[in-house]
């Protein structure tokens, strides 16, 4: 779960609350079956539906690459060490492709060495464009969507399991508990997705790379921590903001909101977004980094990572092939993630959130404009019909 996903979900919920207030203020729409639905040409409805589906597909692709894949690579990349490189082997560039220079070193016998530069390689994941180009150079044109099959299988299986467990409960907290249990139970699928994303292209199919169930006890605590933080970030802001003010009375059929209540809902929505961002930074990022790095520590020895990665985590763990435990602990997984990398990850997520929100705004404008052109004077009636169908009875 990424920051952009959380903000989009929070924005949709806030918009729905405002719309509910406006509907209540207008006195309701009556039952959906009271009036005949407006008649629109089938071709126009089909064009609008296809456009909506294309927008959803594009947002999913953008969210997958920028919101899931790139942050995962950033969480495991270990910046390469600085190196002294002879000047005559570097091609001139503008700006120069180096971070710092060093004076020409001299030997004790008085002879001068060739002029050299101290090159500090910039991490790949510091630039979104550079990361995409690197992936395509190493794993092909479609590499920004690598691991998509495993991602879909993992999420569909999780969704089915959540549905089964959640049928026992009838509350939001019950569904959250079901999600935590389901994610933890399918921890090996989550770990397999991480392995596919961070490793070089492999001839194996996705199902051939699913980790053995014997690895479940090693990865389950990290997934449980991640799933719990995910639910806290999603639920806690709405529980807090929905416990007072106008949102507290939204389900009361006798509640008659006024203009000031609309402003109150807007303010509570902003507060919910602020809490979401705060909890995301304080809980979700550390939990996500911990999960990814613990999973990366169990990457099979025959697989090479597609970005620079220190398997020993600075000497804090020993690979299983030489008698070590073969994984890093939860605390060390986070501590071994240096502050420079943490800042780089936060910057990346801010960029991703802005990109997703910009695309979301653009697609919304396109969809609204198309709705006006296609439905014309019947747009209001269509919105009433859709609202009546979607309202709970």
Structure notes:
The protein is an all-alpha fold. Helix 1 runs antiparallel to helix 8 (259-297) and helix 4 crosses helix 5 (172-185). The protein folds into 2 domains: 3-80 and 121-390, Mitochondrial carrier fold; 81-120, no CATH class. 27% of the residues are buried. The model is unreliable at 21-34, 97-104 and 387-393 (pLDDT under 50). It is 60% helix and 3% strand.
- Average pLDDT over all residues: 77
CATH fold-level label of the largest domain = Mitochondrial carrier fold
What proportion of the residues is helical, as a percent range?
Answer: 55-70%
Annotation, overall tally of beta strands: 3
Span between N and C termini?
31 Å
The chain-level structural class is mainly alpha
Written as H for each helix and E for each strand, in order along the chain, the element string is HHEEEHHHHHHHHH
Beta-strand residue fraction: under 5%
Could you say which overall geometry the principal axes of the C-alpha atoms support? Answer: globular
CATH class of the largest domain: Mainly Alpha
Count of helical regions: 11
CATH architecture of the largest domain: Alpha/alpha barrel
Integer-rounded radius of gyration = 26 Å
Gist of the model:
The chain is 60% helix and 3% strand. The protein has eleven helices and three strands; from the N terminus they run ααβββααααααααα.
Main features:
393 residues, mainly alpha, Mitochondrial carrier fold, 2 domains, three-stranded antiparallel β-sheet, globular, disordered C terminus
